[in-house]
Design brief:
By secondary structure, the chain is of the alpha/beta class. It contains twelve helices and 14 strands. The strands form three sheets. Strands 3-2-1-4-7-8 form a six-stranded parallel β-sheet, with helices on both faces. Strands 11-10-9-12-13-14 form a six-stranded parallel β-sheet. It has a two-stranded antiparallel ribbon with strand order 5-6. The protein starts with 5 loop residues before the first strand and ends with a helix.
């Protein structure tokens, strides 16, 4: 239970609504700014404006999956006004306030460091990343189906990177009957891919493996699908880049060659916001509970 914990939410999308509901269910005292367009707010939530006073009593501050940009602007799908968190707001937060987001950019990291606030990025948790890989893979498959005129079954599909998202992506393609190649950078990932029945190769040999590929799903957040790689692809090949922006593909050259290439970060919040919200809610609640235990031990 979160009885007595004062949580302030700032902005977000449909995922955040699920997180708010979970916190209310667990008896937290919940305030939310940036939700004036929320048509049916959960009972027990106090809808507020972003003010210094609102933040001055917060035990926990929760920002959206991508906390804010480098000017402090917060994505707020349910707000009719711009939501911006300024230095005065960070100054108002109690020193022991926990600041949560999915992933933080430099502005948020810098402000939390400057004001000695503990920043917790939930997407860094293995459990969150693994659970999120499921709607990511499902969304990527939908995109592949919508942008091709052939079936995934019997296609020659390639996954670049065998992290948490890459593994789920490769397994999903295999389950649909695709022939799956996996580009890896570690020998242990090579062995795991081979054990799973995929066709592994080291990414430094990518040029040798792309000429006959129908679909490429990239999870590596650095430039790997270069102009040189693109020059060897068949014109019908479709690239779905799941890495965080700006991705790992030369989109300019892909367009020049007439190859369909799409950057698709944040798929969980697009294709399955309810499930993605529940994943984030469970991780948030667990983390708040763990932090309380830690404080109690000190």
């Amino acid at each position: 239970m979160l009885t007595g914990v004062r949580i302030v939410f700032l902005g977000g999308d449909a995922r955040q609504l699920e997180v708010i509901r979970k916190c209310v269910e667990l008896d937290a005292t919940v305030s939310a700014a940036g939700f004036d367009k929320w048509e049916t707010p959960s009972p027990g939530v106090s809808l507020e404006q972003l003010t210094v006073e609102l933040l001055s009593n917060a035990d926990v501050l929760v920002l959206p999956t991508v906390g804010c940009d480098d000017e402090g602007n917060i994505s707020a799908l349910f707000s009719s006004e711009r939501l911006t968190i300024l230095e005065e707001h960070f100054t108002a937060l109690p020193s022991d306030c926990l600041v949560y987001t999915g992933m933080a950019k430099s502005y948020l990291r810098g402000m939390c460091t400057k004001h000695l606030l503990k920043l917790i990025e939930l997407l860094n948790r293995d459990d969150v990343a693994i659970y999120n890989s499921i709607p990511t893979a499902e969304g990527a498959l939908v995109m592949a189906i919508q942008n091709t005129d052939f079936t995934i079954h019997s296609s020659k599909s390639m996954v670049l990177g065998l992290g948490r998202t890459g593994f789920t992506m490769a397994r999903s393609l295999q389950g649909l009957g695709a022939s799956v190649k996996v580009g890896v950078r570690k020998q242990e990932h090579y062995a795991r891919a081979e054990e799973m029945g995929w066709k592994p190769f080291m990414t430094n040999e990518l040029l040798l493996h792309v000429p006959d590929v129908d679909l490429i799903f990239n999870t590596i957040p650095s430039m790997i699908i270069t102009a040189q790689v693109l020059s060897r692809l068949a014109p019908h090949c479709v690239i779905i880049d799941l890495a965080s922006a700006p991705g790992g593909c030369d989109f300019r050259y892909a367009e020049k060659r007439g190859i369909k290439a799409m950057l698709a970060p944040g798929l969980p919040g697009i294709v399955a916001p309810k499930s993605a919200g529940i994943i984030m809610a469970n991780a948030l609640v667990q983390s708040i509970s763990d932090e309380a235990l830690i404080k109690g031990d000190e």
